[in-house]
Amino acid sequence: MSTSSTRQAGPAETVPAPPKPPITKVTPVSYKNTIKDLEVKDGANSKQRGIKLTVVVEVEREKVKKTEQQVLQCVYRFVPDPHAETRYIKKPEEFYQHVAHDLVAHVKTAKKLPEPTDKFTTRFGKTDFTLAQLQHEIGHGFKIKTAPDGPEIPG
């Protein structure tokens, strides 16, 4: 009696992609800065406010002539709650535009958005606001990506 062994073909071997050349420059191109686009609540029934920023950036790489566009985005909670700042109560849209502007300026110098754990601080009115991690994900498939070539994580 003869037995034959069958061997199943394994998955095709994949060759890893070569590493991308180092990034030399990250330039913010555009972002939405209306209160409708920026303001988020930290949880469905929460009064606590945060900011959701999505910014398109041009990425330049060492020894590569063509730039590429990537999207960076993150969400942050404000500490303290901005409702304690009188100027926020009077001009909330100005507050969100100010914070978005500061975050985009950070991208120009640091080549990335600050992580929610970086304790990035911005001043509005008489109050310093630290941007912290939201306590709840905002859902709707939103992905946090703070750096070019960085991972995307649920946010």
Describe the overall structure.
This protein is α+β, with helices and mostly antiparallel strands. The chain has one domain. The protein has helices at residues 35-38, 86-90, 92-110; strands at 23-31, 39-41, 49-61, 68-79, 121-124, 127-132, 143-144, 153-154. Strands 1, 2, 3, 4, 5 and 6 form a 6-stranded antiparallel sheet that branches. It has a two-stranded antiparallel ribbon with strand order 7-8. A hairpin with a 7-residue loop joins strand 2 and strand 3. The radius of gyration is 21 Å and the shape is globular. The termini are far apart.
List the helices and strands and how they pair.
Layout (H helix, E strand, L loop, with lengths): L22 E9 L3 H4 E3 L7 E13 L6 E12 L6 H5 L1 H19 L10 E4 L2 E6 L10 E2 L8 E2 L1
Antiparallel strand pairs: 1-3, 2-3, 3-4, 4-6, 5-6, 7-8
Gist of the model:
The chain is α+β, with helices and mostly antiparallel strands and 155 residues long. The protein has three helices and eight strands; from the N terminus they run E-H-E-E-E-H-H-E-E-E-E. The strands form two sheets. Strands 1, 2, 3, 4, 5 and 6 form a six-stranded antiparallel β-sheet that branches.
Label this structure with key terms:
3 helices, 6-stranded antiparallel sheet, two-stranded antiparallel sheet, single chain, 8 strands, alpha+beta, 155 residues
Uncertain segments are none
Order of helices and strands: EHEEEHHEEEE
Distance between the termini: 61 Å
List the domain count as a whole number: 1
Radius of gyration equals: 21 Å
Shape assignment:
globular
Percent of residues in helical segments?
A: 10-25%
- Average pLDDT rating: 87
SS-derived structural category:
alpha+beta
Proportion of residues in β-strands: 25-35%
